[in-house]
C-alpha cells in the first residue's frame, strides 16, 4: 500500500533497464519500496539492473517482457499481479530511433511507433485493469516534451510520444474515481544513454531529477508533471507558435 | 442494505482508495456482507475518525457500521449500557448524561463509535486513572470471518486481540460498557502554564495523580528557552454543590454548541509556520498563569474541535498526518530530543498534546504503555516530512516506545514487531480465526498485521 505521502511499497517497471526508471526505483527503495518487478527483454543489462537494486535492499524480480509482443502482455503482467498488490506501475520503455535513418526505412519507423505507442497502449490497459481490481495504485507514464509538438528533427519519436501522451491522459480520465491514479510525466532532454551523442537541448535534465519530480508528483497525486517545471511555460508558448516560426526554430 | 463504490480516506484525508461501501441495517445483513466479501475481504468502519488507513480496504468491502446504532438497555442503577457498535459516544452522552452517567473514556472527539473505540482501544485524558476504553467493556458480540456471531467476554484471548485489534478479528456488533457516575455535566478545571518542557514534565509528574483528567497543550513552534512551553488543563467532573444556584437547576444538561462546518475547499498552506506560530503565541498568552475551579462544559473541556464540523479540511486538499508516540518513564531524554527536533524543524503544528499514561492495557495491540505520549498534527505536504518522521520513529523505537496505529498512515513496517511485541500472537490468532483472510484493511496490508 502507498503511505500518506504516496510512496509505494511495491513497484513494477515496464522497461526495466530505463535509466529514468532505475533512478526512480533507487529513490523509492530509499523510502518505502521493498518489492520491485523489472519487466524487460531478458538481457544481461536487465539482470545487472536487478542486481543493483537488490544491493540497495529490495526484493527484485525480473520478468521477460517485450513491448512489441502485445499478445503476451496479459499473461506476463497477470503473473506479476497474481503475486500481490502493485502500488505503482512505471511505464518507462521507449526507443528513440534514428530519425534520418528511419525516414528512409519505414519499417524502422514503424518499430518506434509500435514500441512507444502500440506496446504502451496494450501494456497500460492490462496494468490499468489489474490496478482497478485492487482499488488503488498509480500508473506513471513516461511521456516526453517531444510529444507536445512534433519537431522536424524527431517527429517519428515525437509523434509516438504524442499518441502515448494523449492515450495516457484519456486513460487517466477513464480511471478517475476508481482509486487508480494516472500520472503523465513529460521530461525535457534527459542526459542518458538514450540521448548519448545528441546535442543537448536547453533546460536539459537528469534521470535523478525526473525521479525527484515523480516522487513529488506521487505525494501530490499530480496528473501531469513537467521536468523541469519551467518546461510547462516554454512548451505552452512553443505550442502556440505559428508553423512558419516553429519550423525555423533551431533543432 | 446499500452498496456503493466510493473513494475512502481516514480523517487525515491522505492515500484514498476505492472500496464497496456496504451499510448493513441488521446483524443478518452484516453477516451476509461478511460472508460475501470476496477475494479482497472487508473491514468495519465507524465514523472515520482514525487518521490513517485503518478503515479503508482498497478493492474490497468496507462495512459502514453507523447504520447499526440502537441503544438496547441501560442499567441506570449499576451504570452499564448495552448498545450497538455503531452508536457514537456523542449519542451515548446525550442519552446517559441526564441519567447521571458518563462514558468511561472519551478521546478528543465525541464523533467516534463504540466499535471504533474498542477496535482502536482509544484513550482519553483520564488514562492515568482509568486506562483505555476496552478496560470498561464487560463483553461484546463479534461477527467473525465464518459469518457466525460470538459472545466475547473480557479476559479471553479473543477479547484482548479485538481490543486495539483495528477491526481485524471481526466486526463488533454490540458491546456492554461500564459507565462513570457523574453528578453534573460540568467540569471543574484547573489551568496553569508551564514555561518550558522540563517545567511541564515536572508539573505533570508532581500533581497528575490529583486529577482524574489531565492533558497539556504544547507549543512545538516555541524555540530556545521556551522550547516545549505548554498550558496544562486538568480537572474532574464538578460535584453538584460547587455549581452556582442558577446552573444547579439543570445540572445534567448536555447541549454542545456547534459552529458552521469548515468549507469544502480550503487552500493548502493555510496552516503555515506564520499562522500557526501566531495562533500558538496567542493560545499560550491567553491562558491564565494559574486558575483553579473554572467550570467548563464537557464539550469545551474534552472536544473543542467538535465545535467545527469537518475541521480536518483546514489542511486543504493535501491532508495531514497525525503523529502520536509513547516512550516509557525513564526515557525522558528521548522525549526531550524529539521535542527539540520538532521545534528545530519548525513543523507547523497547533494541535500538539502531551500526556502521561497509566498502566498498560491488556489489548495485544493496545497503544498505551506507562510513559509519555505526544500527539501532533502536521500538514502532509510539508517538504521532507516523511523522512523526518522516519527519524523520529527511530528515536521512539530506540527508546522502546511505539506509535499509535489508529493514527498511523506512514510507519515503516519493519519497526512494528519491536513496537508491538505481541504482534506474533495477534497474527497467529487471526490465522486460526480467519484462515481465508476475510478481514483486511489498507493498514493491515501496509504493515502486514
What does this entry look like structurally?
The complex is a heterodimer of chains A (251) and B (449). By secondary structure, chain A is an alpha/beta fold. Chain A has helices spanning 19-29, 44-55, 73-82, 99-104, 106-134, 155-174, 207-220, 231-239, 243-248; strands at 10-14, 35-40, 59-64, 88-91, 137-142, 180-187, 224-227. Chain A contains nine helices and seven strands; from the N terminus they run βαβαβαβααβαβαβαα. In chain A, strands 3-2-1-4-5-6-7 form a seven-stranded parallel beta sheet, sandwiched between helices. In chain A, strand 6 (180-187), helix 7 and strand 7 (224-227) form a beta-alpha-beta unit. The N and C termini of chain A lie far apart (44 Å). The mean pLDDT of chain A is 96. Chain B is α+β, with helices and mostly antiparallel strands and 449 residues long. The interface between A and B is medium-sized, with 20 and 30 residues.
From the 3D structure, determine the CATH topology of chain A.
Rossmann fold
Helix fraction of chain A?
40-55%
**Tell me, what is the CATH class of chain A?**
Alpha Beta
Which range does the strand content of chain A fall in?
15-25%
**What is the molecular shape of chain A?**
globular
Name given to the CATH architecture of the largest domain in chain B: 3-Layer(aba) Sandwich
**Residue runs with pLDDT of under 50 for 5 or more positions of chain A:** none
How large a portion of the residues of chain B is in β-strands, by DSSP E? 15-25%
Number of helices of chain B: 14
User: Distance between termini of chain A?
Assistant: 44 Å
Query: Main sheet of chain B: which strands, in order across?
Result: 15-12-14-13-17-18-16-19
* Sheet with the most strands, sense and barrel status of chain B: 8 strands, antiparallel
Q: What is the ordering of alpha helices and beta strands of chain A?
A: EHEHEHEHHEHEHEHH
Amino acid at each position: 500500500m502507498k503511505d500518506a505521502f504516496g510512496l509505494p511499497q511495491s513497484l513494477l517497471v515496464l522497461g526495466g533497464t530505463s535509466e529514468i526508471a532505475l533512478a526512480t526505483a533507487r529513490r523509492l527503495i530509499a523510502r518505502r519500496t521493498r518489492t520491485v518487478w523489472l519487466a524487460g527483454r531478458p538481457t544481461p543489462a536487465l539482470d545487472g539492473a536487478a542486481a543493483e537494486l537488490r544491493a540497495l535492499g529490495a526484493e527484485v524480480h525480473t520478468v521477460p517482457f517485450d513491448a512489441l509482443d502485445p499478445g503476451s502482455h496479459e499473461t506476463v503482467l497477470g503473473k506479476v499481479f497474481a503475486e500481490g498488490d502493485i502500488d505503482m506501475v512505471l511505464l518507462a520503455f521507449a526507443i528513440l530511433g534514428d530519425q534520418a535513418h528511419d525516414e528512409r526505412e519505414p519499417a524502422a519507423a514503424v518499430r518506434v511507433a509500435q514500441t512507444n505507442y502500440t506496446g504502451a497502449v496494450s501494456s497500460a490497459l492490462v496494468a490499468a485493469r489489474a490496478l482497478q481490481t485492487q482499488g488503488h495504485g498509480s500508473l506513471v507514464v513516461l511521456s516526453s516534451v517531444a510529444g507536445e509538438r512534433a519537431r522536424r528533427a524527431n517527429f517519428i519519436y515525437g509523434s509516438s510520444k504524442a499518441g502515448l501522451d494523449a492515450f495516457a491522459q484519456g486513460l487517466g480520465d477513464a480511471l478517475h474515481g476508481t482509486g487508480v491514479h494516472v500520472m503523465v510525466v513529460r521530461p525535457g532532454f534527459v542526459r542518458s544513454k538514450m540521448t548519448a551523442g545528441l546535442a543537448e537541448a536547453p533546460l536539459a535534465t537528469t534521470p535523478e531529477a525526473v525521479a525527484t519530480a515523480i516522487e513529488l508528483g506521487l505525494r501530490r497525486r499530480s496528473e501531469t508533471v513537467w521536468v523541469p517545471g519551467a518546461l510547462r511555460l516554454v512548451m505552452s508558448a512553443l505550442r502556440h507558435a505559428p508553423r512558419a516560426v516553429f519550423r525555423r526554430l533551431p533543432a | 442494505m446499500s452498496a456503493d463504490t466510493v473513494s475512502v480516506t481516514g480523517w487525515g484525508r491522505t492515500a484514498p482508495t476505492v472500496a464497496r461501501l456496504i451499510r448493513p441495517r441488521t446483524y443478518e445483513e452484516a453477516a451476509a456482507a461478511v460472508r460475501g466479501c470476496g477475494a479482497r475481504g472487508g473491514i468495519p468502519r465507524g465514523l472515520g475518525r482514525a487518521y490513517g488507513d485503518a478503515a479503508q480496504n482498497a478493492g474490497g468491502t468496507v462495512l459502514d457500521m453507523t447504520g447499526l446504532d440502537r441503544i438496547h438497555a441501560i442499567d441506570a442503577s449499576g451504570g452499564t449500557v448495552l448498545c450497538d457498535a455503531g452508536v457514537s459516544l456523542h449519542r451515548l452522552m446525550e442519552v446517559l448524561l441526564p441519567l447521571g452517567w458518563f462514558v468511561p473514556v472519551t478521546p478528543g472527539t465525541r464523533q467516534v463509535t463504540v466499535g471504533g473505540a474498542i477496535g482502536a482501544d482509544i484513550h482519553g485524558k483520564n488514562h492515568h486513572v482509568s486506562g483505555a476504553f476496552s478496560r470498561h467493556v464487560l463483553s461484546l458480540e463479534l461477527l467473525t470471518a465464518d459469518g457466525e456471531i460470538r459472545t466475547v467476554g473480557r479476559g479471553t484471548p479473543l477479547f484482548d486481540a479485538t481490543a486495539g485489534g483495528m477491526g481485524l478479528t471481526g466486526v463488533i456488533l454490540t458491546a456492554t460498557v461500564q459507565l462513570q457516575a457523574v453528578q453534573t455535566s460540568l467540569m471543574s478545571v484547573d489551568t496553569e502554564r508551564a514555561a518550558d518542557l522540563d517545567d511541564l514534565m515536572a508539573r505533570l509528574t508532581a500533581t497528575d495523580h490529583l486529577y482524574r483528567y489531565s492533558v497539556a497543550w504544547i507549543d512545538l513552534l516555541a524555540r530556545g528557552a521556551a522550547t516545549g512551553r505548554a498550558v496544562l488543563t486538568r480537572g474532574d467532573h464538578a460535584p453538584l454543590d460547587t455549581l452556582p444556584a442558577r446552573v444547579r437547576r439543570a445540572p445534567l444538561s448536555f447541549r454542545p454548541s456547534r459552529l458552521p462546518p469548515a468549507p469544502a475547499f480550503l487552500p493548502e498552506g493555510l496552516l503555515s509556520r506564520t499562522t500557526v506560530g501566531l495562533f500558538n503565541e496567542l493560545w499560550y498568552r491567553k491562558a491564565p498563569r494559574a486558575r483553579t475551579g473554572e467550570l467548563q462544559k464537557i464539550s469545551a473541556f474534552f472536544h473543542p474541535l467538535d465545535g467545527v464540523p469537518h475541521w480536518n479540511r483546514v489542511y486543504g486538499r493535501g491532508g495531514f498526518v497525525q503523529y502520536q508516540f509513547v516512550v516509557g518513564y525513564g526515557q525522558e531524554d528521548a522525549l526531550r530530543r524529539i521535542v527539540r527536533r520538532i521545534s528545530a524543524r519548525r513543523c507547523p503544528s497547533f494541535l500538539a498534546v502531551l500526556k502521561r499514561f497509566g498502566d498498560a492495557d491488556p489489548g495485544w495491540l493496545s497503544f498505551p504503555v506507562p510513559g509519555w505520549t505526544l500527539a501532533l498534527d502536521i500538514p502532509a505536504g510539508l517538504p521532507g516530512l516523511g523522512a523526518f518522521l522516519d527519524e523520529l520513529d527511530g528515536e521512539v523505537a530506540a527508546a522502546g516506545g511505539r506509535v499509535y496505529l489508529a493514527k498511523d498512515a506512514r510507519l515503516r513496517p519493519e519497526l512494528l514487531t519491536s513496537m508491538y511485541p505481541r504482534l506474533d500472537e495477534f497474527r497467529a490468532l487471526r490465522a486460526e480465526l480467519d484462515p481465508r483472510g476475510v478481514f483486511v484493511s489498507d493498514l493491515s496490508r501496509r504493515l502486514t498485521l
